[in-house]
TrEMBL record:
<keyword id="KW-1133">Transmembrane helix</keyword>
<feature type="transmembrane region" description="Helical">
    <location>
        <begin position="6"/>
        <end position="27"/>
    </location>
</feature>
<dbReference type="InterPro" id="IPR009915">
    <property type="entry name" value="NnrU_dom"/>
</dbReference>
<dbReference type="Pfam" id="PF07298">
    <property type="entry name" value="NnrU"/>
</dbReference>
<keyword id="KW-0812">Transmembrane</keyword>
<feature type="domain" description="NnrU">
    <location>
        <begin position="8"/>
        <end position="228"/>
    </location>
</feature>
<feature type="transmembrane region" description="Helical">
    <location>
        <begin position="80"/>
        <end position="101"/>
    </location>
</feature>
<keyword id="KW-0472">Membrane</keyword>
<feature type="transmembrane region" description="Helical">
    <location>
        <begin position="39"/>
        <end position="60"/>
    </location>
</feature>
<protein>
    <submittedName>
        <fullName>NnrU protein</fullName>
    </submittedName>
</protein>
Length: 231
């Protein structure tokens, strides 16, 4: 067994720097002005996914330092969670609130109909938190605990920070915003008016999310090097 943590440390360092570098000297603002907001965030999002993939692969290749023993039941956690993770992630793209990751920047959070934000105002962050927690349970070694534990912390902290930002920005309208949205709730599906306007799109996004999950399930072993099947 190798004791070389260099690859994992390098991947973590590059991934971390990629998130702080754009904030230096207003680099992000200048790139947005030059490229346009949509192009900048598309390229930055793709780069972040590639770098995070590198971190995951590097964690799998890092020295194995056991924090807790592998548990048979814990291997089922990602298998059961990942369909929900992919569906939530697809729900979250362009959700009708500017106060979350992946939200529609031009959305008016004080309008009467919050759309998918009525189900969750943080679907992408919930997806990240659920992905992190399920994989943390299934991987009891130090490198994976750093990656998945860190991701779980950041996702949870981001939810709190976005809600605090909404409270500050909306002032008196914040109470209405939080009353019309939820951290997660399926209650709006029971509302005929909500179903009439949003159910078709929700079903389409759910189907896309499940297709992406099936694809990821088949590619997991080839890309990550570990079978996701719990048996």
């Amino acid at each position: 067994m190798t004791n070389d943590w260099t690859g994992f440390a390098l991947a973590m360092m590059v991934f971390t720097v990629s998130h702080f570098l754009p904030r230096l000297a207003d680099l992000r603002g200048r790139l947005i002005a030059s490229l346009g907001r949509k192009i900048y965030f598309s390229v930055y999002g793709l780069l972040s996914l590639v770098l995070f993939g590198w971190v995951i692969v590097a964690a799998a290749q890092a020295p194995y330092v056991e924090l807790w023993p592998p548990l048979d039941w814990a291997r089922w956690a990602p298998m059961l969670a990942m369909p929900v993770v992919f569906v939530l992630a697809v729900w979250g793209l362009g959700v009708d609130t500017p106060y979350t990751l992946g939200g529609k920047r031009t959305a008016d959070p004080t309008q009467g109909d919050p759309g998918r934000a009525a189900l969750s105002r943080h679907p992408l962050l919930l997806a990240l938190a659920l992905w992190s927690l399920s994989h943390l349970l299934a991987n009891g070694d130090l490198a994976h605990a750093i990656v998945f534990g860190g991701s779980l912390f950041l996702a949870s902290a981001a939810i709190l920070l976005f809600d605090a930002k909404a409270t500050t920005a909306l002032c008196q309208a914040a109470a209405t915003y939080f009353a019309h949205t939820a951290l997660f709730s399926l209650k709006p599906i029971g509302d005929p008016n909500w179903r009439r306007h949003h159910l078709r799109g929700l079903c389409l996004r759910t189907g896309i999310g499940l297709l992406l999950w099936v694809s990821a399930l088949h590619l997991h072993e080839q890309v990550i090097g570990v079978s996701p099947l719990p048996y």
